[in-house]
Protein 1
Amino acid sequence: PLLDPLPPLPAFHAALGLSIYAFLATIYLVPALGEAFIKARLFGRDLLKTYDTPIPESLGLVCASVYILVLILFIPFAFSDVFLNDYEDRSKHGLVVAEFPHQKLAVYLSSILSLLIATMLGFLDDVFDIRWRHKLPIPIIATIPLLLVYYAERGNTNVVVPIPLRMFFGTLVNVGPLYYLYMSLLSTFSTNSINILAGINGSETSQALIIALSVILNDLLYLPWPFGVRIPLHLLGGHTEFNVGGAWSAGMAYGSRELVERHLFSLYFMLPLVGVCAGFLYHNWYPARAFPGDTLCYVTGMAFAVVGIQAHFSKTLLLFFLPQIFNFVLSCPQLFGLVPCPRHRVPRFDKETGLLYPSKAVFKKRPSTVATVILKVFEGLRFVKLGVNAETGLLETTNLTILNVFLVNLGPMKEDSLVKVLISTQAAGSVLAFAVRYGLAWLLYDG
Ligand code: UD1
Ligand code: MG
């Protein structure tokens, strides 16, 4: 059957309008509530400034509240076509004929449930500083409702095998339960990876903003545009023509109604997130008047996991996390205790020059052979600078974060310059992600 040329407009307009409202509400509420947060002892010192004024922290709670309330307000609009059809049925037949799409409601409700758990966890972490081993499993549990919905939809658990390996495994391997494990780990990754790439003004918020914009751009590719715009991807290196108006033309691999619905869902969740993050960035930008706290990192991270799982594009989603993946892999020796990990790994601020320098972790005892080898490799790759003593061996290393990698390679710089470097890297990562997803996928996969 032919599809509607456009998404149900009331829903789309509502999503757009509510996102603008979310933006304005955040811009207004963050400074208005800052005092109250300081009174409740929710504040932090800006580690990279000369002044000591308390900066309200955990304002991510305001962002999360606005975001979730706006999403809840949106739910009836997502079903506007159902209401319209029911109305028509009733006026024609005097009764309601069509069945209510409970499945779709389950998608929305389970998503909001996961976001609420993430908000609660993030806020508890801000208040109590939860230990790593305690907070890691919580996002995993928070995804269970999402996974059940995925199961109910008979979501795919196949992995497409890259062409060179097909003689061993065939084209498709069904990894079954492992795929569910992977999806639940995705939520732990997306929530924590933004949190450990933090500590300079605007860093957490801008990461979330760029990832959300990238997801939106990706969703737009799947919508049935009225003019059936076509992007000839073979010109970019791909061997298929990617049809932006996919849903319109029958017979294309892209373009089932389900696919459009899923990407609309993702769009509806990402638009208000952009609104909230953009509004908050205004106050979090250098010099920050408010800190996001772990709450913002958790809720944005969970929002990405939600759309990745519910709209079935978790692998594409991971491509938008390239800087976070790099930062996580680099951090592993510190996260898993091979290299000492100070409470704060943010760059070091020099009061004289006003510039940021790489911060260091000092070895209290001789590092293990494994740690030494890893650090030497990192040094060869220009990820760290090591302090060595001829007799006793390794003395210190720069902290294993992407922010320090920038400072080691580009030299000391001001805080707002560093956040701009981070933003450019995140944006470049997204460009690369699109190139890999739509340009190079044919190298490994056909179609
Ligand atoms: C994570 C990082 C830690 C980093 C911290 C900074 C790991 C394993 N943990 O810890 O290395 O130092 O985030 O957020 O990588 N702050 C600023 N400027 C900012 C944002 C935060 O100075 O722009 C400071 C403030 O003092 C604020 C504190 O960082 O109070 C918040 O730290 P918190 O989010 O509690 O740290 P973690 O997430 O545990
Ligand atoms: Mg944090």
Protein 2
Amino acid sequence: MQPLKRNGWIEVICGSMFSGKSEELIRRIKRARIARQTVQVFKPRLDNRYAPDAVVSHNGALEQAESVARAEELLDRVWPHADVVAVDEVQFFDDAIVDVAEVLAGRGVRVILAGLDLDFRGEPFGPTPLLMARAEYVTKLHAICVRCGQPATRTQRLVNGRPAHYNDPVILVGAAERYEARCRHCHEVPG
Ligand code: ADP
Ligand code: ZN
């Protein structure tokens, strides 16, 4: 592979839930800091998983992050001297995040975006596929299918212990909901 000489590019880290996206994002953030780069970390405001203002992986690793409501707000908040901009849960932004990533990369920033590539139905999720197409580097991680032990590429949504239906609303009041990693063959989406 030909190394890039000028700074500024887009990296996407994608995969199902539990595939290690947050872990990998945190690893890249730490290594950039070791290289004495200025790193700024963002996440969408709606995600309240475990900690309000941090990127947290399922294995407990943690990195402070700024929550932003919209892609435009992210762009406004980027420091002029930032070398690296890292974003977790990027699937929850709207498509404006694509232009923001392009603008930052054009300015010389290394932009690292982590997020789900597929929703619980197994369909492309929000802006992630668009970012994957425009990125210089795409890393697709796999979890382990909890059913069969094969590499998992899908996120199984379970409502009260049963596979969620295709048309189930995203928010189900009063229902016990959980997610698990599954392979293509074990992933179930009843119509
Ligand atoms: P993501 O951000 O992709 O949801 P995380 O980085 O938060 O993933 O978590 C990855 C960690 O989740 C793994 O290192 C492992 O400790 C744990 N884990 C739990 N269930 C699974 C699974 N089915 N497959 C792989 N890792 C799992
Ligand atoms: Zn399986």
